[in-house]
Amino acid sequence: MTIHDTIGVYDQSEFADNPEARCPIVLILDVSESMEGAKIDTVNQALFKFQEMIREDSVTALRADIAVIAFTGTARVVQDFVNGTDFEAPVLYCSTPKDRATYAQYRERDLLALYPSSKLLFGTKFSVAVNQALDIIEARKQSYRDGGIAYYRSLAYFLTDGLPVNDYPGPLAQAAQRLAAAEENRSVAFFSFIISGDDGIPEWGVDGDKLDDFFKLIGISDEELTAAGAFGHGAEGARGLNLYRVAELVDASVPDIIERCVSAGIMRTAVGELSRLAPRPPVVLNNMAQLEGSIQWLSRSVAAVSQSQPGESIRLPQPDYLNF
Is residue 106 part of a domain? Predict the structure, then answer.
């Protein structure tokens, strides 16, 4: 039996040892290639800090049940629900590590969860990750009902740094509907976060068949942009295009260019795509301190929930991480 055979299967005996009410928390984390480097390193540091903060308070640790999902073109449960007293932050790696041999020292569960058949890794599928999270949340809540355990509304933390890739409109719309229903019946509180690029702009994209429309709308040709140094090294199409340089050339602001292109149906943005999926507006994180702070905010939110009674209305901590 592998780790994947036991996903969503829970031993009722755990409730005899700990009959406290439970708050299921799921962290849904993008591990696509673009997350490699400072982003995934910061996520790993923040997960370890999250572990420590959950354990700082005995009530929070007993009432928190934590799961971690890593996703690229597929979604894998790296850590199925485990009580906060036993939670150990997994070490996450991106889908195309430079040297997999260096990772052999780490726990088998991490590697098995993150390196399935390589053909499944292509893309960044938001819909698959969201559906996986909702599936294990429902399975965990069923185990609470079977065991006579009270439980709180689940908290879901979703993190990405880009657009959905190879994730088609149908599955995305279905995932959005399912998520909206879960929010409406107060089963889940879903919070989504986007890490901006090095230029401070969340990822955007122009499909190849719309490139001519893009250049026409901004009023400058591909050749002129290339001559002005607006493309990064090795860029193809609109990839690598410095929108700040474009804004200078056409005497417009970056937000104005993005708004015009999105309105014309020429450009997709990470913020726009995630806004269509998530019931709450996504939060843009502009640096690694904000990224780490957002996960610390989640741990404080878990603590706030655990100090209340199931069904009680509570106010989550203020999102101070945007001041970092």
Answer: yes
